[in-house]
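Recall the central idea of this unit: under ordinary conditions, the amino acid sequence of a chain determines the structure it adopts. In this exercise we apply that idea directly, starting from the sequence alone.
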Amino acid sequence: MRYAKRRSNKYHIENEDAVRILTEILHESGKNADFIFDESACKSPVSNSFADTRFYTLSIFACISMLIFTIFSPVLLFILPHGPVIDEERALAAKAMANRETYDVSALQKGSRDNTPLCLRPIAGGKEVLKNEITIVDITNAEDGYIIVRYIGDSKKVKLRITGPDEIVYTYNLAVDGGKNEVFPLQAGDGEYLICVYENLAATQYVTAFSKKVTVTIKDKFLPFLYPNQYVNFNEGNQAIAYSEYLSYTANSDLEVVSSVYNALISSLSYDYDEAENVQSGYIPDVDEVLTTGKGICLDYAVLMTAMLRSQKIPTRMEVGYAGTAYHAWISTYITDIGWVNGMIRFDGKEWSLMDPTFASTTDTEKLANFIGDGKNYQRKYIY
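Accordingly, the structure predicted from this sequence is:
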């Protein structure tokens, strides 16, 4: 008889010997021994071994499959669709917005309002200039609500700071490598402005390269919000301006223009989540790029709508600050006999609610209305 050693170092009779002995005893006693070989009662070592082998084979196959999936899963990111799904109506609206040939007014009835674009042009008059060897600040037309700055030094990283009578400090990046004339608004109104230019020394260290004060009296308080500037840059050649003219064709009032432009943008633009994750500090939107691609981030939405409304002679502020805890951009606009409208989701015949084209195009109206509430969720920091 053979004995097998268990893990506990105790010996026992092998299964085959135990079955043989039990069968002999049952036969000698005249009893039936067939039940011993019933698979449901007792499985042989061979069948157990087969089951174990099959189990381990399946386990190994599953592990290999998971390993292959893990290795190649990044490739699926390029194959499978990703990002929010754009509904068909929005996609068609974006396509129409991007195609200049669709701006056909032949079948439309002309409104009583003049929809001819008026794109004011900032001019470096050269009559009143503040300068040193690296900076030229043209204040000839400061009474129109803007100054023109050009950096001609050698630094590769330059900042401009303008502090107005409201003591809010606006910081801009200046063009380098010979520079160019860049327009900056005097949005704080009448009073004294401090204009400073800083050159980068290393890392985040800057040195003052230019500093001058100028006292300004602006002849029309709305002019800073009608002219283009570094952030809201547009001219009569932009497709965005042609689109604004088309949308304003049937309008009888400024309110109808605002409504038409606003509704067109929120129904066609899609939020660009990739851009939002990768946008760099100092990013300045191109209005025609936003219009023709049909997508952008909050700054793109706000700048595009601001440019379109300014070209229709409607004073518009592009505002930057916080919506809740998120850094955000939106707009407000001035309507004759109503004043500055700081919001717009819908028009009830008398007034608008928050004029935020980004949220309006990406958020359920009821949720947006709850978020906006009395406007306290919006904290304005800068105006452009």
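The first strand starts at residue 3 and ends at 5.
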